[in-house]
Give the backbone structure.
Amino acid sequence: MIRVGLTFNVNHHLHDSILNGFPCPENPSRLIKIMDYLKEKNLIDGFKCHMYESEPASARDILRVHSAKYVNLIRSCTGNSQLNPGNDIFVCPSSYEVAMHALGCVLNAGDLVVDGKCTHSLALVRPPGHHAGPDASSGFCLFNNSGILVKYLQEIHGIDRIAILNIDAHASDGTYAVFEADPNVLCISIHQDQSTLYPHKGFIREIGAIPALGYCINMEMPPESSNPEYGIFYDEVAEKVLEEFDPQLVILECGFDAYYKEPLTKLNLTIEGYYRIIFKLASKWNVITLLEGGYHDDLGLLTSVVLRALLGEDNVKDDVDLVDLLASRHVKTRKNFNDNLFLLKNRLNPYWGLWNRA
Ligand SMILES: [Zn+2]
């Protein structure tokens, strides 16, 4: 069996704010960097990793999550640049077709795993999706890729229990809005402290709604948090809750903007930090990985690290990891992290019993 199936939305370059006359960090160079790096390192097609072609999704797929009114707004905006689709998002003439193909890649990444063709999958797509809610969006996202995939897996494949883990630096507020009252979907989002970063949602106190209290988990990481803090959260909260929830598969909202070189955020994950989380996740569950944010020059390198982790291969540490440059330099950061972790565990304890288990 192929260990990792890749999908890629080939028309992504047609979604570009520069066509509307202004630049945006979420632009085609992100995926171009990734694909160039993977090709240069011969990582795309091999014995254990294979690229699959994908068909576009349908309007029916989107409407499982989004309202017809919102979908019509996005479609209207493609024909009229004067209309406003939402905060910090842009729509150009081909954006709807691009988003539909991106979603097709996402659904195909799900099919590959569910049909048993691949152990894990990675959808290299843009625009990202995790800020898109049912009736509105913001933050460079148009449609909620992971939410649409979950609904598709539930309705078409009859899968009951699905978990979503967001490791993008920004809170997964759109995904939360879709599933906050659904106890069949566990949403865990680990992101930068929401008093310091957009979208200013996803606070620790937000744990879902009846009848799914405890099924949405938001961990706020203080600025400067790095591999050790992420490792503690993953081991002491994320992994334990995942084990108890026992998902049939996990969707990873994989943003690369928690990386220490990211200009838009203040977190300090290194390639080793990304590798450890994804390696541990993929060692226990089938993982469908979806590209979210990340706006620096190392997107190709980080994608190769994700592949290595999904393939179960050893990581290749870079200089920053070798000298442990960013590990726990900030005493205040660790104290704030410990305070947040304490708050979160207390909030979740009635639902998951994190401190009562060995
Ligand atoms: Zn982000």
Notes: The CA atoms of residues 181 and 210 lie 6 Å apart. Strands lie at 2-8, 49-51, 118-124, 162-166, 185-192, 216-221, 249-254, 287-291. The mean pLDDT is 94.
